[in-house]
Specification:
One of its GO terms (cellular component) is plasma membrane. With about 400 residues, this protein is mainly alpha-helical. About 65% of the residues lie in helices and about 0% in strands.
């Protein structure tokens, strides 16, 4: 027998089954074909990955029905408003809301796509170095700052946050990163400025960073005293690591060419697909709220009262919307409900009580008490800040 791997068109005598195509599975389920380019199976070979992942055939890209469906609905409602054929009732109000929000946010989305492309070019090793030593005050500050700069939504941040934990970041750093990242990204900051103005946007950013820092330092303190278990993956940074030389090396490694800017912009547009998808969902939800809920009723249930704050907390817990989708809804709470504290609570509590985030923490750390530490140590701070914002408004 030849030592070279068999092609997908050769006979497979060992199994007496010859797949007719590269992507077809062998008839015997106990011995799946790993791929047409894979070497012959040996007695000692152990395959832990799915056959599809190791095969030579490209993976079928799934159509993003939420993105395209939301885009179609937004375009239809936007066009309906331009046609001026709809009466000023439920559907007409929804179309006007879509028209108003899209005209407000489009420039922020375009600028955000450029930021996403720039941030995607930063080496991951440099990002890990920026986070600093886990368990220290400087490390928590750096994790919070990284969360502010990274353009990630509340669902996309989970992949990075869990990877940071596996790479040795302290539990406090991970918590600070998760709290600071989802809606303090550069793109959403621009969109928030367009929706609620610069002063309130800066106030929300400062208060959320404060909660992230307090929570991160608090949890790291509990780990240091033994009340919470430490990260078993923790390893100290190399003694010879220097941040600025690493930054200079990354800068020197940039290949300057004419196609760099278009590639960066395209990378940002493709990387923003998930952001745009949830932004469209948020626009449609905001249109639905305006069309179905009377302004007086909206102010009554989600106004600047303790009842409104409690209703906002319940809504943030139940509604599974990404941070991009929650941004237009939070703007509705502030502009129509007159409750900046409710808007802040809706965005922050949506991160703290998100069951996807809690379950991801549980699966990564293997302990419920570490996963439940996220809402336990953040919700009281969020509610107090929300109440103060409503009282001082």
């Amino acid at each position: 027998m030849s030592d070279h791997p068999k092609s997908c068109h050769s006979d497979v005598n060992e199994t007496n089954v010859a797949p007719t195509r590269c992507c077809e599975s062998a008839a015997k389920p106990a011995e799946p074909a790993i791929g047409c380019c894979a070497p012959a199976k040996t007695e000692t070979a152990v395959h832990t990955h799915a056959p599809e992942a190791a095969g030579c055939c490209p993976e079928t890209k799934r159509r993003d029905y939420l993105l395209w469906g939301g885009l179609c609905l937004v375009v239809l409602l936007y066009g309906a408003h331009l046609s001026a054929l709809l009466p000023h009732d439920g559907l007409g109000i929804a179309a006007h809301t879509v028209f108003e929000l899209i005209n407000t946010m489009w420039w922020g989305v375009v600028i955000a796509a450029l930021f996403v492309g720039l941030l995607a070019a930063i080496p991951q090793s440099l990002i890990m170095g920026i986070l600093g030593q886990g368990g220290s005050k400087r490390g928590v500050f750096r994790a919070t700052a990284a969360g502010l700069l990274l353009d990630l939504c509340s669902h996309g941040v989970l992949m990075v946050g869990m990877q940071l934990y596996k790479r040795g970041a302290s539990l406090g750093q991970v918590m600070a990163f998760l709290i600071a990242t989802p809606w303090n990204s550069l793109s959403l900051t621009i969109i928030m400025i367009a929706l609620i103005g610069l002063p309130w946007t800066l106030a929300f950013i400062g208060l959320s960073l404060l909660i992230g820092l307090v929570t991160g330092l608090w949890i790291d303190r509990l780990v240091a005293t033994g009340r919470l278990p430490a990260n078993p993956h923790h390893e100290p940074l190399p003694a010879d690591f220097r941040l600025w030389p690493a930054i200079k090396a990354a800068w020197a490694g940039i290949e300057w060419r004419w196609g760099l800017v278009p590639e960066t912009l395209w990378r940002g547009l493709t990387g923003s697909a998930m952001v745009i998808r949830w932004l469209l969902v948020g626009v449609l939800l905001a249109a639905l709220v305006r069309a179905l809920m009377d302004p007086a009723l909206f102010s009554q249930w989600f106004g600047p009262t303790l009842l409104g704050l409690a209703a906002t907390l319940v809504a943030a817990t139940i509604i599974e919307v990404c941070s991009e989708g929650s941004t237009p809804l939070a703007a509705e709470l502030m502009t129509r409900g007159g409750a900046p504290g409710n808007a802040f609570t809706f965005m922050m509590a949506g991160v703290s009580t998100d069951y996807t985030e809690i379950m991801s923490l549980k699966d990564t750390t293997g302990q419920w008490r570490l996963a439940l530490a996220l809402p336990l140590y953040t919700l009281p701070q969020i509610l107090v800040v929300g109440w103060l914002l409503n009282s001082l408004n």
